[in-house]
Write a structure and sequence with these properties.
The protein is of the alpha+beta class. It has helices spanning about 50-55, 125-140; strands spanning about 1-5, 5-10, 15-20, 30-40, 65-70, 75, 80-85, 85, 95-100, 100-105, 115, 120. Strands 1, 2, 3, 4, 5 and 6 form a 6-stranded antiparallel β-sheet that branches. β7 and β8 (about 85) form a beta hairpin. The chain is flat, with a radius of gyration of 17 Å.
Amino acid sequence: MCYKKALYIKYNGKAFIFSYGTKCGQYSGDEYSCDLMLLEVPLEEEHQLTEIPKLMRLNDYFKSSLIIGMSDGSLGTNSKGKMAGFSMPFSFRDFVAQDVETKSGVVFMDLRSVPSQVAKYKSGLVNVLVNSTKEFILALSL
C-alpha cells in the first residue's frame, strides 16, 4: 500500500498514525484495493516526526489496518478478523446491499474469480465506521 499523507494523533498520552492507503506498484496482492491504517507509535517530539514513513512500514500484512478494501468492492479486516487487533463491533454482512457477483468459469491468473458486479453497501455503514473508529481510538488511549 502507498500512504501519501498521514495524520499524527496525540491523545491522552499516546500517539497514533492514521492514514488511507491505496494499492500501488506490482505485487502479489492484486486483490487488495485500499486500507485505513491506525498504528500506535512512540510519543515523539515535533522534530522527530520525520520518522513517520519508517514507522508506517510496520503495517506489513495489514496488522494495523482498521479496514481493508478489496478490488471486488468487498470490505474486511485483517487475517484474524480484527480491527487492528480488536474485535469488530459490527459485521460488514449487516450492511451489504449487494454481494459481489462473479463471471462463471472466468478467473484471474492467480485463480481469483473475476467480478462482474462489485459489492455495494448500505449508506449507514459510513456512520458506523466513523463511530467505531472514534471508539477504537478512545479505547486505545485509556
